[in-house]
Design goal:
The structure holds two protein chains of two kinds. By secondary structure, chain A is mainly α. Chain A is about 75% helix and about 0% strand. In chain A, helix 1 runs antiparallel to helix 2. The radius of gyration of chain A is 17 Å and the shape is elongated. Chain B is built from seven helices and no strands. Helices cover about 75% and strands about 0% of the residues of chain B. Chain B has two domains: about 70 residues, no CATH class; about 50 residues, no CATH class. Classes of the chains: A mainly alpha, B mainly alpha. The interface between A and B is large, with 38 and 36 residues. Chain A: This is Spore coat protein.
Chain lengths: ~70, ~140
């Protein structure tokens, strides 16, 4: 049974999206500017993972969208 | 104008060596692992908790992969090993701690439930064979919820 997302959970989800965004960009720099093939490979794989994580997090917000109350609850 | 052209000519490697760059990613992965663990423990919605748990596991795996790659490139020096006498001393001290904890449980009449911890230490661990702790499945699910 899905519950409405709490304010705290919402903060964690949006902070996590920012974290994944930052990590994805950092990995892209390693792939673009790095010299070690092994590192570039690991970071290349990570880019897709971070992208997937961002979608997962966004999707969870969308799933909770309809459950969110429009009036403040006590 | 001239200044701008000069700036563009500097490669990323010059701005930050690859080792430092990789270390920055590793440090951020470690931070995100902690954040996901906190988020999972503070989630009240089961779906949200499960999502954070999955993200935690994925991020842990990525951190491990990057660490291994960095270690193979000699970009990461592991801490020196703990000395044998220090390990011996800690084992001795903490065997007593575990023994006292078990005595405490015995006094409370709760020894039955906790006995698998002691058995694991004294028998299974030493003999190198792992036996599943015998707790009812309904109880187990509480621990791993």
């Amino acid at each position: 049974m899905m519950q409405p997302i709490t304010a705290k959970e919402l903060e964690y989800v949006v902070d996590s999206i920012s974290n994944e965004d930052l990590l994805m960009k950092q990995c892209a720099v390693v792939v673009a500017a790095g010299s070690s093939p092994a590192l570039k490979q690991v970071c290349g794989q990570m880019i897709h993972m971070h992208e997937q994580h961002m979608h997962t997090l966004l999707h969870s917000l969308q799933q909770h969208q309809q459950l969110a109350p429009t009036q403040p609850q006590n | 104008m001239h200044q701008q052209q000069h700036t563009q000519a500097i490669s990323m490697q010059t701005l930050m060596p690859e080792k430092d760059l990789a270390y920055t990613v590793l440090a951020d992965l470690k931070r995100v692992v902690r954040e996901y663990a906190t988020a999972a423990t503070e989630s009240s919605c089961p779906q949200t908790r499960q999502m954070f748990t999955n993200l935690l596991n994925n991020t842990l795996r990525m951190q491990g992969d990057l660490f291994n790659a960095m270690q193979q490139q000699n970009m990461y020096s592991v801490a020196s090993p703990a000395l044998r006498q220090e390990v011996d001393k800690q084992i001795k001290e903490h065997q007593q701690v575990i023994q006292q904890a078990e005595q405490h449980l015995q006094q409370l009449g709760l020894k039955q439930q906790a006995s698998f911890g002691g058995q694991y230490n004294q028998q299974q661990h030493l003999q190198g064979q792992y036996i599943q702790p015998q707790i009812p499945t309904n109880q187990q699910s509480q621990f791993y919820m």
